[in-house]
């Protein structure tokens, strides 16, 4: 497996056609000052159009594939800013397709989990409800540098037009961009269903109403963890208990993971750009509903090299009909 994880060893000046990103046409750096789109400006300023490409060669059919991919992002690498060429071992495809496939696999690891050490146990990196995903606290993974590596993956994919991370909690983004969370943390950000329901029950009580013994007993360890064991559960200070338990469970117990993710992303200046251009957030971390592609949009993304080739037109027609049939079955029609 070849990658750019050891400096410029894998960045060569061959294949000048690879200098152009396979995902989009980039404007020269001289136009950066006139660009009003912060996403386009970020990519123009961050991507090194003139340097040699980063070349990745991996075999996705082996048990070591996940480890090989993780090794690419184990260390900081200036070549992440370069244009990219990917080739899968024993596969002939080159160009845009393998690059898209690589980033799809990469962000699949981030979004859906990966097998780190035990091939029979999936390790989740994020948890929580739809559009309230937060990093899973895991000291072992932090010590291994995995969350910093994941930050590099997120930024690298975004820079090259690959899939983003969908469904991130607004509280996490607030923490990264403001170093505080103000009113951003909500009960919906708490991944533990039982705790979330208990806090909702507590907040629904009248100000001077005493919680039940069962509720007080359930919340006891959470109050202790959040350092509000001495704060009463009734009266004016009840909101402090709610606020601190939410803050502890969403941010404080995941503080190191959040910091490592931000550090990895910021090696490609992504967090700094988010701080300066908060309107980028929807593009970098879109809602989960945006991960579903409309069938007509999917059809529009399919192209053939020779539009006048009758055989290609037949294949295109078959694909369009197949998409329609799958869509109808999914909709239950």
From TrEMBL:
Checking Gene3D superfamilies in the record gives: Hect, E3 ligase catalytic domains
Q: What is this protein called?
A: G2 M phase-specific E3 ubiquitin- ligase-like
Organism whose genome encodes this protein: Porites lobata
